[in-house]
Design the sequence.
């Protein structure tokens, strides 16, 4: 070992749990402040790295040095975790760990990435689950029905209507919706300027119905508080969490007698699928969703082609 390598290892050695302070916290600060990733994404990185170092400590074969982590450690971690988590989660863990080690390579604290060369099991291909257009209409009618029956107050009805219309009308991720501010919205143009996953900016058309709900909410019902620039708030004016959006959706799924496993992200799937069903160009849908890669959006064409084939099989005499 060279004198330079010895010096490097002495800097990056940490005892039990000290790795959090020495290596994890500076990395998370880099993600949050320099890359400006969302709190949700930063937590996911933290979980992946925490589980990996927990595995290393439990194995008792690790020398406590960042440069002492090897490919075998990574393989053992994958073998252990694949019994516990899905393939998709496992791939996210490994992606997060690769980013973590790349960061410390750039800081000249380690020389190599121990996850290079790691082969993962391929994730099972799943088609997105979505609602039909008729099912979405039933869902969106929910707040109006409850208001007409005097079960909820106008404040709640307009807020809930706005939330549902923005989820479907703009294809927002739930994290984007809870962080939406009036300053992000052009009421003249009917669009919102969003900074999405990975800090990627995009423009989202909101649609006439969503804009009507948004204008009514803002002008007549939104409470004036210190959080008044945040769009989705409680009656006390406090910003909503992602969990509150999820619970609101569950409430109206139950009312509309729709599958209870539909999530805000599956409403986003419905948004994309219906755009393609009605002739939208794939690259336009990619832009609207904020996908970096076209391949991420192409899964919706599989849904579309599957439905076309089902119609063909039912209708064509020689199918």
Sequence:
């Amino acid at each position: 070992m060279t004198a330079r390598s010895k010096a490097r290892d002495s800097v990056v050695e940490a005892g039990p749990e000290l790795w959090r302070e020495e290596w994890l916290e500076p990395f998370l600060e880099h993600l949050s402040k320099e890359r400006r990733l969302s709190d949700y994404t930063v937590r996911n990185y933290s979980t992946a790295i925490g589980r990996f170092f927990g595995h290393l400590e439990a194995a008792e074969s690790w020398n406590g040095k960042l440069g002492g982590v090897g490919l075998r450690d990574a393989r053992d971690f994958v073998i252990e975790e694949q019994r516990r988590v899905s393939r998709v989660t496992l791939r996210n863990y490994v992606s997060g760990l690769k980013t973590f080690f790349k960061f410390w390579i750039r800081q000249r604290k380690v020389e190599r990435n121990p996850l290079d060369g790691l082969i993962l099991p391929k994730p099972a291909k799943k088609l997105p689950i979505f609602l039909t257009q008729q099912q979405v209409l039933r869902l969106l009618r929910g707040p109006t029905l409850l208001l007409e029956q005097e079960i909820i107050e106008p404040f709640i009805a307009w807020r809930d209507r706005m939330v549902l219309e923005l989820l479907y009308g703009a294809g927002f991720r739930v994290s984007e919706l809870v962080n939406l501010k009036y300053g992000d919205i052009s009421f003249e143009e009917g669009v919102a300027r969003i900074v999405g996953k990975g800090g990627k900016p995009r423009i989202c058309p909101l649609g006439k119905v969503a804009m009507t709900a948004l204008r009514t909410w803002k002008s007549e019902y939104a409470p004036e508080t210190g959080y008044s620039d945040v769009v989705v708030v409680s009656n006390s004016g406090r910003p909503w969490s992602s969990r509150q959006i999820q619970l609101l959706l569950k409430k109206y799924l139950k009312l509309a007698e729709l599958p209870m496993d539909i999530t805000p992200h599956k409403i986003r799937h419905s948004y994309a699928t219906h755009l393609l069903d009605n002739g939208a160009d794939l690259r336009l849908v990619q832009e609207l969703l904020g996908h970096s890669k076209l391949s991420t959006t192409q899964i919706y064409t599989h849904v579309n082609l599957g439905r076309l084939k089902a119609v063909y099989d039912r209708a064509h005499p020689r199918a």
Q: What stands out?
A: Residues 111 and 275 are 47 Å apart (CA to CA). The radius of gyration is 24 Å. The chain is about 60% helix and 5% strand.
